[in-house]
Design brief:
By secondary structure, this protein is an alpha+beta fold. The chain folds into two domains: about 325 residues, Endonuclease/exonuclease/phosphatase (Deoxyribonuclease I, Chain A); about 90 residues, Immunoglobulin-like. The chain has seven helices and 21 strands. Strands 2, 3, 4, 5, 12, 13 and 14 form a seven-stranded mixed sheet that branches. Helix 2 packs across helix 7 and helix 4 runs parallel beside helix 5. It is elongated. The two termini are about 15 Å apart.
């Protein structure tokens, strides 16, 4: 007997999402440059940057912020340091269980990146080094632990690119950063990774006009183009108007290990793709959640503690001041789920619905939509497996999706049409 692929709209999952709509989960992401954590040099020593002291400071900061995904720069090159952070900072009484990603140092650098994640909310699916011009730039792919996973539900993926780009303001430093970013984007394009992607780390850039930043935020492929959640382009360095977003340096005066001079740089950032800004693929940026921890906007070219800082509890401000010459940056996202229902036409100029057809097809119904309509199919790791477009002339139109080439599994169809929000529908191929 010839077995044909059949397709099933996941109605039960949709009904489940309705029941959970009032209790949507939120997840938070934070990036922090730890300033030579566990790595001693001639200028950062056990006396002025002691790792045991840093554990106490970092524990205070982590306990206050509780990020679900915690990426760090400037961890020393010893793999055991990741375990140390878990044991001494994160997995202590009262906290959920966290784990860390694998250790990489293909660039043979004295400083590396690391990712820590809340295992109650996320599972690490894959990790790669996507560039290593100066230091490793890491790509971590995780999926959200949907409460219904054990009952056959699917979930959403998020991809984190963690980078500590070349420091310095010389033309050669900017060229190196451009090489790093170009290498990452080329690798992303070759891997066909799209969807929920975050680019975070210590960018070491003085302005959004730098070519490396322009590549990130104006990349030709819209699926891997990045956006600043607070939309603050311009010159960040030594610019009073950018004071609420400055992340380096919390100190003035002189210090052998810490960069000083007061807060006047926006080196540390989190950028996201459009699907996160719009919430169209299961994770949506929560407006106003992007923050530089400890920054109250009153620190331009001055220290974190003078004048007195009341933006966070006193012990947190003290820990931030003593921990690093950077401030952490954090944002939150809502787990939006995937819309799979029919959009009703009432009060709308047009709407989209989906209809399953026996056999190997799946129809998207366009009602009252005129203009260019883009269709995309994604697998559950965020890879786009098909894409095409049509020109709709309005009225009622059924567009069949050929799924013969798709192997069994779960997929998302995304339809982008003029005049209405993007539509996402989930389907399964058997």
């Amino acid at each position: 007997m010839l077995l044909k692929k059949t397709l099933l709209i996941t109605l039960l999952l949709f009904l489940g999402s309705l029941l959970q709509a009032a209790q949507k989960d939120t997840v938070s992401v934070m990036i922090y440059n730890l300033l030579f954590y566990g790595h001693y040099t001639s200028f950062c020593t056990p006396f002025n940057n002691n790792v045991e002291d840093k554990d106490e400071y970092l524990s205070t900061i982590f306990d206050h912020t509780r990020p679900d995904l915690f990426a760090v720069n400037e961890m020393g090159p010893d793999p055991l340091l990741a375990e140390r952070i878990l044991d001494n900072v994160i997995n202590i009484a009262g906290n959920p269980e966290y784990s860390h990603a694998g250790f990489t140092n293909t660039a043979n650098s004295s400083l590396v990146n690391m990712l820590f994640y809340n295992t109650e909310k996320f599972t690490l699916y894959d990790e790669k080094v996507v560039a290593s011009v100066v230091r490793d730039i890491n790509l971590y792919s995780l999926y959200y632990n949907d409460p219904e996973l054990d009952f056959g539900a699917d979930t959403v993926f998020v991809h984190l690119i963690v980078a500590h780009l070349k420091a310095g303001s010389r033309a050669s430093d900017q060229q190196t950063r451009e090489q790093e970013i170009s290498a990452v984007m080329k690798r992303l394009a070759s891997m066909d990774i799209s969807g929920n992607i975050m680019f975070l780390g210590d960018f070491n850039m003085n302005s959004s006009f730098e070519q490396a930043y322009q590549i990130l935020t104006f990349y030709p492929d819209e699926e891997i183009r990045f956006f600043d959640p607070v939309d603050k382009p311009g010159v960040w360095f030594n610019n009073y108007e950018m004071a609420p977003y400055h992340t380096q340096s919390p100190r003035t005066g002189y210090h052998e290990c810490f960069v000083t001079g007061g807060l006047d740089d926006r080196y540390d950032q989190i950028l996201v793709t459009s699907s996160i800004m719009d919430g169209t693929l299961g994770l949506g940026y929560i407006e106003g959640s992007y923050e530089t921890i400890g920054q109250d906007g009153k620190r331009f070219n001055s220290s974190l503690i003078d004048p007195p800082n009341h933006s966070e509890p006193e012990d947190v401000i003290d820990a931030l001041y003593n921990m690093s010459d950077h401030l952490p940056v954090k944002l939150s996202m809502e787990v939006t789920g995937i819309a799979t229902s029919v959009r009703e036409p009432e009060g709308e100029a047009g709407y989209i619905s989906t209809v399953s057809v026996p056999g190997s097809s799946f129809d998207v119904v366009l009602e009252g939509i005129s203009g260019r309509v883009v269709f995309e199919i994604y697998n559950m790791t965020g890879q786009r497996v098909k894409a095409w477009e049509i020109y709709s002339k309005g009225g009622s139109e059924r567009v069949p999706l050929d799924i013969d080439s798709l192997r069994g599994g779960s997929f998302l169809v995304r339809v982008i049409a003029p005049g209405i929000p993007p539509y996402s529908g989930k389907f399964m191929v058997y």
